[in-house]
Write a structure and sequence with these properties.
5-stranded antiparallel β-sheet; 9 helices; Arc Repressor Mutant, subunit A
Length: 240
């Protein structure tokens, strides 16, 4: 995962803690946003492109556990609980709600950086590993991608014929909506597939895929000059 493209949201109602973590993460090359309330957090999440969230469980009058629960209904963004509570029950409940890790205040910056890197690696690895797609469909702008059947249907239900390479590439992009993926990252995720993924091949397949997606394809798959590509529309992941 390319560090400069990684976006971390620090959620804490204490400005000094937010500033401390922002400075720490930015020094490592991460892009950082701050949120003092759940409303600010969810606005950032809905805007897309968030890779990891550090979440204080004692967020003023709001419950960090409830925020984590609500977040998991709309997103699989990794969550690290950052809390002053030493209560084992809170930690266990947070992990059961879908948080990926936790760290207790007072914490050492080197430790939280290590945990951030570990969680990001785990999330990146999960993205590249084969998924059980038999019960999952992806919908975007009224299109529907069914990876179990390996088919893409247009808004009117018509089957859109895709080559193996085009479908593999679309699957990589659609699983990370709003994220900028470098060509190198795309190639890493396509290792082991039945076609040779390289810079030129990816650019060529993107061009062909755009033609099949129609007039709005340039806004669906955006070129980020000098970096790579981003699937820029909202994606809904549903179970059949």
């Amino acid at each position: 995962m390319n560090t400069p493209s990684i976006h971390i949201v620090v959620v804490d109602d204490e400005p000094p803690i937010r500033t401390l973590l922002r400075n720490c993460f930015e020094a490592e090359g991460y892009r950082v946003s701050e949120a003092a309330t759940s409303e600010e957090l969810f606005n950032l999440v809905r805007s897309g492109g968030v890779d990891l969230i550090t979440l204080d469980l004692t967020l003023g009058a709001e419950s960090g556990l409830q925020i984590a629960r609500n977040l998991r209904t709309i997103s699989e963004i990794p969550i690290i609980m950052v809390t002053g509570k030493g209560d084992l029950i809170d930690r266990v409940v947070g992990l059961e709600l879908g948080a990926d890790d936790y760290i207790a205040k007072p914490f050492h910056l080197r430790e939280i950086l290590a945990r951030v890197r570990t969680v990001l690696r785990r999330a990146d690895r999960a993205l590249t590993e084969p998924l059980l797609e038999s019960e999952v469909k992806y919908r975007f702008d009224e299109w529907e991608l069914n990876l179990a059947k390996r088919e893409l249907r247009e808004p009117d239900g018509t089957l859109c014929p895709l080559t193996t390479a085009e479908l593999d590439l679309l699957a990589v992009l659609i699983k990370r909506p709003g994220h900028v993926l470098s060509r190198e990252a795309i190639m890493d995720q396509l290792k082991g597939h039945d076609w040779a993924a390289n810079d030129r091949a990816i650019d060529s397949q993107i061009s062909r895929l755009r033609k099949k997606l129609g007039e709005d394809s340039e806004s669906l798959i955006k070129t980020v000059r000098g970096v790579g590509y981003s699937f820029s529309t909202k994606v809904t992941r549903t179970s059949t």
